[in-house]
């Protein structure tokens, strides 16, 4: 029997309204795995993630999530993905409670169960007393924490986290990495873009290095070392050699 792939991206060609950015990107993320998406500014990381979550439509190629295809089954597909954007998306007129409820409705979650998970997350990020506040007015890091609470409260099988490691204080980074570990243990697939290579090296199971809209290298740290012929080097040294 083949390996069960949570996410499979095959020959993805894509970009913005006919401006090609990605040239045949291939990647996969298995259940219980954290894959780090790395690459220089403009390499195509966010564009790749925007295709996976369905904001952008592939020019060609295929994206499947546990066998589901976005084109054929958009509602089911989108419920299987939770997304923490690089820049928080919050509504001026909604309270923190209303943001959480909006997410619960979008993912058709049982509210009692979802509130149990939400309350735990809010406590972790010290937001439990701010349910009636308007997060659009929060600090940058607090806004990011709200987005993390919303995404991690769902029961999505794939978590997409776009550069979460900037703007969060060290305690919140530690808490986020623990939450990712809990999700992995529950069989969730996690794809995280980041420039913070020392953290990526310690926590990611595998890496996909993008350069100019193409996968330049992929694999475990050991595989990247072998590929770059640099047996003892750290991820950032390998990256500087390949990117
Ligand atoms: P960074 O590390 O800076 O976040 P990235 O790897 O996420 O970079 P992308 O944001 O995916 O890179 O950008 C890839 C390319 O797509 C860049 O050339 C960028 O100019 C282009 N691009 C990004 N957003 C748009 C857009 N809305 N319209 C047109 N082109 C865009």
Short description:
This protein has 243 residues and is α/β, with parallel strands linked by helices.
Can you tell me about this structure?
- The chain has 243 residues and is an alpha/beta fold.
- It contains 9 helices and 10 strands.
- The strands form 2 sheets. Strands 6-7-8-3-9-10 form a 6-stranded mixed β-sheet, sandwiched between helices.
- The protein is globular, with a radius of gyration of 18 Å.
- Adenosine-5'-triphosphate binds at residues 16, 19, 21, 39, 41-47.
- Residues 7-237 form the ABC transporter domain.
- GO terms for molecular function: ATP binding; ATP hydrolysis activity.
Between the first and last Cα atoms, what is the distance in angstroms? 35 Å
Rg over alpha carbons? 18 Å
Helix content: 25-40%
Structural class, by secondary structure, is: alpha/beta
Spans of at least 5 consecutive residues with low confidence:
none
Give the helices and strands, then pairings.
Elements: E1 7-16, E2 19-29, E3 34-38, H1 45-53, E4 60-65, E5 68-69, H2 74-79, E6 81-84, H3 96-106, H4 111-124, H5 140-153, E7 158-162, H6 170-185, E8 189-193, H7 197-203, E9 206-211, E10 214-219, H8 221-228, H9 235-242
Parallel strand pairs: 3-8, 3-9, 6-7, 7-8
Antiparallel strand pairs: 1-2, 1-4, 4-5, 9-10
Helix pairs in contact: 3-5, 4-5, 8-9
This protein binds adenosine-5'-triphosphate.
């Amino acid at each position: 029997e083949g390996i069960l792939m949570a996410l499979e991206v095959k020959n993805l060609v894509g970009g913005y309204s006919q401006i090609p950015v990605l040239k045949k990107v291939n990647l996969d993320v298995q259940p219980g795995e954290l894959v780090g998406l790395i690459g220089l500014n403009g390499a195509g990381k966010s564009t790749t993630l925007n295709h996976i979550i369905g904001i952008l439509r592939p020019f060609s190629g295929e994206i499947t999530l546990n066998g589901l295809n976005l084109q054929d089954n958009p509602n089911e597909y989108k419920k299987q993905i939770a997304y923490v954007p690089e820049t928080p998306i919050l509504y001026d007129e909604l309270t923190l409670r209303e943001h959480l409820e909006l997410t619960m409705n979008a993912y058709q979650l049982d509210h009692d169960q979802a509130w149990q998970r939400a309350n735990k997350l809010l406590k972790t990020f010290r937001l439990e007393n701010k349910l009636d506040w308007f997060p659009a007015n929060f600090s940058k890091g607090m806004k990011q924490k709200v987005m993390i609470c919303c995404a991690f409260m769902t029961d999505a099988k794939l978590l997409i986290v776009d550069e979460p490691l900037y703007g969060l204080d060290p305690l919140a980074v530690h808490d986020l990495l623990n939450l990712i570990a809990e999700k992995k243990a529950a069989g969730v697939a996690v794809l995280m873009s980041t420039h913070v290579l020392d953290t990526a090296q310690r926590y990611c199971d595998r890496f996909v290095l993008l350069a100019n809209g193409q996968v330049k290298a992929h694999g475990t740290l050991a595989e990247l070392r072998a590929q770059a012929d640099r047996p003892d080097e750290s991820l950032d040294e390998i990256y500087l050699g390949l990117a």
